[in-house]
Amino acid sequence: MVIYLRGDLGAGKTALVRALFLALGHTGRVKSPTFTLLEQYEAGGLHLRHFDLYRFRDESEWEASGFRDEFDGRNVCLVEWPEKARGLVPQADMEIGFEILPAGRKLTVRANTATARECLRSLQN
Ligand SMILES: Nc1ncnc2c1ncn2[C@@H]1O[C@H](COP(=O)(O)OP(=O)(O)OP(=O)(O)O)[C@@H](O)[C@H]1O
Ligand SMILES: [Mg+2]
After folding, report:
1. Is the pLDDT of residue 125 over 80?
2. Atom of ligand 1 nearest to the CA of 105
3. CA-based Rg of the chain, rounded to a whole angstrom?
4. Which atom number of ligand 1 is nearest to the Cα of residue 8?
5. What is the DSSP string of 57-108?
């Protein structure tokens, strides 16, 4: 599954990923992959991949760092700044948009596939 996280710097994308991983049972740290671009976790029986592509520059890096293989369907990939690698990151099942409000944040969730719609439905129940 591929989940895009869109919003300005500091909008809360990493904060949401952190909360999600902790909720899935991860007990260690969740670092922002600002420089590494990718951090990997195993939690809740899922292979979790957290990308921050803000500093992604070079298309050749995509193949070289094996990022393509991470999207082969085995992993749940959460991607901050997907637009920085437009055309390389596969399409999103789910897109979460973050807006900074005077108090807190507004999130807009869009489900593009049946899998994502199922996730949304289970959130609503
Ligand atoms: N819902 C929220 N309400 C208030 N503060 C928040 C919220 N979410 C995140 N923050 C705070 O905003 C700061 C930046 O959040 P975070 O690192 O999650 O942003 P980001 O969207 O991942 O930014 P970047 O694009 O730089 O990676 C952190 O100090 C965090 O504690
Ligand atoms: Mg972040």
Report:
1. no
2. 1
3. 14
4. 25
5. --HHHHHHTTHHHHTSSSSEEEEESGGGGTTTSPPPSEEEEEEE-SSSEEEE
| Overall domain count for the chain | 1
Tokens of 19: 């909360």
Confidence bin at 123 (pLDDT 50/70/90): confident
Ligand 1 surroundings by CB, under 6 angstroms? 7, 9-15, 32, 52, 54, 80, 104-105
Which range marks the domain in which residue 58 is found?
2-124
Report pLDDT digits (tens) over 1-56.
999 999 999 999 999 999 999 999 999 999 999 999 999 999 999 999 999 999 99
Phi/psi region, residue 44 (left: phi>0; alpha: psi -120 to 50; beta: rest), is left
Which pLDDT score is estimated for 26? Answer: 97
Q: Quote the pTM value.
A: 0.95
Task: Tell me the CATH number at 17.
Answer: 3.40.50.300
